[in-house]
Amino acid sequence: MTHMHIAGSIHADAVQGGPTWLTVPDDLNELDLSLWPRGTHRDETGRVVVAGVALTDVVAEHGTPVYVIDEDDFRSRARDFRAAFPDWDVYYAGKALLTRTVARWAAEEGLNLDVTTLGEMRIALEGGMPAQRLGFHGNNKSEEEIAFALAQGVGRIIVDSFDEIARLEAACVEGGHRAKVLVRVTTGVEAHTHEYIATAHEDQKFGLSIMGGQALTALVRCHSSQYLDLLGIHSHIGSQIFETLGFEVAIRRTMKLAAQFRTATGVELPELDLGGGFGIAYTSADTPQPTSDLAAAFEEMIEHECRAFALARPRLSLEPGRAICGPAGVAVYRVGTIKNVELEGGRTRLYVSVDGGMSDNIRPALYAAEYSAAVANRTSDAEPVLSRVVGKHCEGGDILIRDVFLPSDVAIGDLIAVPGAGAYARSMASNYNQIPKPPVVSAKDGVTSTMLRRETLDDLMRLDVGQ
Ligand SMILES: *Cc1c(COP(=O)(O)O)cnc(C)c1O
User: Fold this and answer.
1) Cα dihedral sign for 319, 321, 323, 325?
2) How many angstroms separate the alpha carbon of residue 27 from the centre of ligand 1?
3) Domains in the chain and their CATH numbers?
4) Choosing a second label site near 133 at 20 to 30 A (CA), which of 124, 151, 239, 334?
5) pTM of the model
6) Cα angle at 430 between 429 and 432, to 5 degrees?
7) Quick one: pLDDT band at residue 101, thresholds 50, 70, 90?
8) Which stretches of 310-415 are DSSP H helices?
């Protein structure tokens, strides 16, 4: 869906009463447990409790908006990947959510970590992730970033262009280093996800094309380099993917490329990285596969392609981000104003404005991402009303949730909790309209701890150094 369609479809929704997947809930107080951190429930007074902490208590201490991350939920999803893919390397994609604490959790759970910038490398290292367990990504790594990565001894660099290969070799010469590399390729897979988060079709900025021949050329180029140790091929087909078909095609094409590389050089590549992108449930319409099912499907595909191309099983890795931190996080807002907007045909739509919006969650505006929500401070016996949760920014498109059922007695001061907010919310946050970014609070066994404090207006004022 593009931005153009959003305005046009308001009218259609008004007639239909919302998207086809959205049904009127029997009981608004009931939480769909597939969306919330494991163990989330309402206590006897009706308050939503995450990791043993009532969200009202988190808000009393930290204010709104606030992101709450359930530590045990994050850790259990990390463990699920380790258990389901026992002899694979699992790289947590730090861009989804990265703080020093999160890097420490990942390290403690036996995950490696993907980073894309100097900033992400710094936080990962300060969180205690060993440099050898970092994978360094990006399509435009700077000389400074490459030099830092080499000096730290980063475990692998995923090269994305011929320019970068030359830049990396120059940095190796300069600093007296060698670099372990994978070549990021595009497999031509059209992943069934939003265009902006599909990354394997040909016409986009990432990777080197298998079909166009650049991927093989780059592999041979790295293989023959004096300064680079070529580990293998890297493919990441996109994000929020539910079907394994795209991965199947990616595996076939990368394995075929590995066979072509062997023909060209006589050498078998030792590694293959299949990227991330495993979908999570944001609404009750989303039905992600259990991680163990995913693993079984991957193993079967790998085995099949190894046999087909007579290749030894490579060392394998994958890179889940959202699937580990997304469901662990909840964003909590406070309702500020409520407006009943009259639509054509005598219908109305309830606009519920909260004290955040596109600055703390850009995903709905960026790629029409859908979310769900619940009133977190109380239960209600009022009837469900189709509502739209909007932010406080100066944009008509500042919509957090286009369609969600809320109780008709939703009131100023109520808390609105949004599940699935652990990934790509705080990490993509901005200061649009000079709003300070919300804090990220971890919760475990009834105790909270601040991971990232709330930005203050003083933080913002300090940046403004003009006269
Ligand atoms: C973004 C990204 C990931 C993680 O994607 P998720 O959808 O969060 O799992 C993994 N690998 C690469 C190269 C990425 O760019």
Assistant:
1) positive
2) 36
3) 41-69+328-462 (2.40.37.10), 85-323 (3.20.20.10)
4) 239
5) 0.94
6) 140
7) very high
8) 322-325, 363-367
